UniProtKB/TrEMBL annotation:
The name this protein goes by in its record: Glycosyl hydrolase family protein
PANTHER family: GLYCOSIDE HYDROLASE FAMILY 16 PROTEIN, GLYCOSYL HYDROLASE-RELATED
Keywords, in A-Z order: Hydrolase, Signal
GO MF, any single term: hydrolase activity
Keyword Hydrolase attached: yes
Signal peptide start-end: 1-25
Organism of provenance: Pseudoalteromonas fuliginea
Annotated ranges, domain GH16: 66-243
UniProt cross-references to Pfam families, sorted A to Z: Glyco_hydro_16
Length: 296
């Protein structure tokens, strides 16, 4: 699968080079229209021929129940593998219900992440992903998110932007995928979290996959413009929203998050649940490539 994919990319690149006199030729995303010029953004693209720590942060900041470990991200034979393991450990945890940091908080799972060091906003983003073999319990994800800027306090200011290209296997049905939006915006003088559940008309897209996402590789993409956000699975449009708040610079991220039955949601965050089972762990998602294009 990987070899055929790379050969295809090389063939496309050569045909474009010779077909356009070699002027700024690039392989194009499937949404490209005749006459358009899309440029591959190499700092946010990877064929995963090596584990490139200059391009990706594999030990990014922990958040909630997500404990990231560099060793849980590996690259072999052109595939990035992000693994979730059952590992009891202690670290500082933000307790959102009590608004306090708790030192030496006991957590039970670690996972892998790849967060781009480069940032961007608009463009077409695509990854070819094979989901984890465990269901339920983990959610392979391809997403992008900004920093939270609490200094932005004017009405309508956007403190945070997040675009989920895809989150797999986080619902009760194996084939349900989410293509969602999250943001913090100043409304009525105060920051307001807008989540897919609380603002479905602007923030949620659900899709029933016509396949088992753990059974093979499939492409998941999103096109982000200043006006619109459009999601694709295997080149088929599966979601659309107007771009109301998602204009900030964001890091591109591949990760495998923990989900029910090993987590519980309260106070706008995930907490560990009483289910600390090792059954089904370790489990991994695999990424064949990630590519980012910008239309010139």
């Amino acid at each position: 699968m990987k070899t055929n994919n790379k050969v295809k990319l090389i063939v496309i690149s050569l045909s474009l080079i010779f077909g356009s006199a070699g002027v700024n030729a690039q392989p194009m995303p499937h949404i490209a229209q005749p006459g358009e010029n899309w440029v591959l953004q190499t700092e946010r693209s990877d064929e995963f021929d090596s584990k490139d720590a200059e391009k990706w942060n594999f030990q990014t900041e922990n958040y909630g129940v997500w404990s990231w470990k560099d060793e849980n991200a590996s690259v072999s034979e052109g595939i990035l593998k992000l693994t979730t393991k059952r590992e009891t450990h202690l670290r500082t945890f933000w307790d959102g219900c009590n608004k306090t940091k708790v030192p030496n908080y006991r957590l039970f799972y670690t996972s892998g992440v790849a967060k781009s060091r480069a940032t961007g906003s608009y463009g077409y983003y695509e990854a070819r992903i094979k989901g984890a073999d465990k269901f339920p319990g983990v959610s392979p994800a391809f997403w992008m998110y900004s920093k939270i800027d609490r200094t932005l306090t004017n009405e309508g200011d956007v403190q945070y932007s997040e675009i989920d290209v895809v989150e797999l296997t986080q619902k009760q049905t194996l084939q349900e995928s989410d293509h969602d939006l999250h943001n913090i915006v100043i409304k009525d003088g105060a920051p307001k979290w807008m989540r897919p559940g609380s603002s479905p008309e602007t923030n949620h897209n659900g899709y029933h996959l016509p396949f088992d996402p753990s059974d093979g590789f499939h492409t998941y993409g999103v096109n982000v413009t200043k006006d619109d956000i459009t999601w694709y699975v295997d080149n088929v449009q599966v979601g659309y929203k107007k771009n109301l708040y998602w204009h900030r610079e964001m890091n591109l991220t591949l990760s495998q998050g923990l989900r029910t039955p090993h987590t519980q949601w309260k106070c706008n965050q995930f907490y560990p649940s009483d289910n600390q089972s090792a059954q089904g762990f370790p489990t991994s998602m695999e990424v064949d490539y990630v590519r980012t294009w910008l239309k010139q």
